[in-house]
Design brief:
Radius of gyration of chain B: 13 Å
Order of helices and strands of chain A: EEEEEEEEEEE
Shape of chain A: globular
Number of strands of chain B: 9
Strand order of the largest sheet of chain B: 1-9-8-3-4
Order of helices and strands of chain B: EEEEEEEEE
Largest sheet of chain A: 7 strands, mixed
Largest interface: A-B, 24 and 20 residues
Shape of chain B: globular
Oligomer: heterodimer
Number of helices of chain A: 0
Helix content of chain B: under 10%
Distance between the termini of chain A: 37 Å
Number of helices of chain B: 0
Amino acid sequence: GAVVSQHPSRVICKSGTSVKIECRSLDFQATTMFWYRQFPKQSLMLMATSNEGSKATYEQGVEKDKFLINHASLTLSTLTVTSAHPEDSSFYICSARATGTEYGYTFGSGTRLTVV
Amino acid sequence: DAKTTQPPSMDCAEGRAANLPCNHSTISGNEYVYWYRQIHSQGPQYIIHGLKNNETNEMASLIITEDRKSSTLILPHATLRDTAVYYCIVELAGSYQLTFGKGTKLSVIP
């Protein structure tokens, strides 16, 4: 089946620093990937849609200069949280969809970001 | 985009069938119903999806009503490892985006 690998699984960083999260599709090509954020006891909220070779599309209220998304190849999208603050602490999850409907959307295992 | 309504929580005895309902009364003809689940601190896991017909795979069965306004996910023999939040999602037509609601927290009880 389709597999999405997300790294790191857990990261702790200091306020003001930047953190990069990688999302890779291992056995399929993904022209589009999605980034979600999930706060404790809440549902997943779509942050942005990452498009290979073009600019990402951000949801309303998500700062594009703070959450930098790069989708330079058909198998890799990265999310960089710039100048992180404690309120950015959250669970970040990526997803992608393999061609055809038999797999639905595949999600990464998530990244737990803690900003101290 | 069609929205979904699910009960916030359900309990199920281990070994019994778990039936999770979902209402999607505003679904349009070209929108699929997807089911995912999320075990604590993990990414969501795809379970099953369907358009009009009932579907079955190794994990579950999906029963969609004839008018497509509701569906039921059936886990035939629930185990403790099935304890998770289950999300019923209707895919936005043409946008390939999934919008998550609050889901149903299923607790499988020994």
